[in-house]
Amino acid sequence: MIAPVRPEHPNRMERAAASLVRGVVRVPGMRRVLLSRVVALPGYWFATGCAFVWGTVLFGRHRRSHGLHVIYRLPRWSFGRGGTTIGAIYLTRENLTDSVLEHEAVHRAQWRRYGLSMPVLYLAAGRVARTNRFEVEAGLEKGGYA
């Protein structure tokens, strides 16, 4: 088994998230419950709805691509990095290349699997893309991290 890669120099939020994840994993059966479709899918739908409202309130343009609802032309402060996927919604200003959308489609699948656990797990994985397992799985090059 390959050991998980730890974030380099995690900040306070990343350490807190990692501690929370470790604590939850120690509770017998909790991981199975949180990752079950019965719990994860409603979380995914809730996150999708919240992100859709966020993008709509900020007057973003909407289109569908790669299985995502893409809301673009948003203010730069309204999302992280070049764009952020929350549930099935990709929020961005203008980062709309095919390779980026393929990368973000993987994040959509991750949201479907992990539901509302996704933000905590992502934060615990760290902000450095090359050590963040979610970014590595989505493809660093496609996401513009290479």
In short:
The chain is an alpha+beta fold and 146 residues long. Helices cover 49% and strands 12% of the residues. The chain contains 6 helices and 4 strands, in the order H-H-H-E-E-E-E-H-H-H.
Q: What does this protein structure show overall?
A:
By secondary structure, this protein is an alpha+beta fold. The chain has six helices and four strands; from the N terminus they run αααββββααα. The chain has helices at residues 12-26, 30-34, 37-57, 98-114, 118-125, 133-138, and strands at 61-65, 68-72, 83-86, 89-92. Strand 1 (61-65) and strand 2 form a beta hairpin. The longest helix has 21 residues, at 37-57. 26% of the residues are buried. The mean pLDDT is 92.
Spell out the key features of this protein.
about 150 residues; alpha+beta; globular
SSE blueprint:
Layout: H1 12-26, H2 30-34, H3 37-57, E1 61-65, E2 68-72, E3 83-86, E4 89-92, H4 98-114, H5 118-125, H6 133-138
SSE arrangement, N to C: HHHEEEEHHH
Low-confidence stretches: none
Q: Which word captures the global form?
A: globular
Q: What would you report as the Rg, rounded to the nearest angstrom?
A: 15 Å
Beta content comes to 5-15%
Structural class: alpha+beta
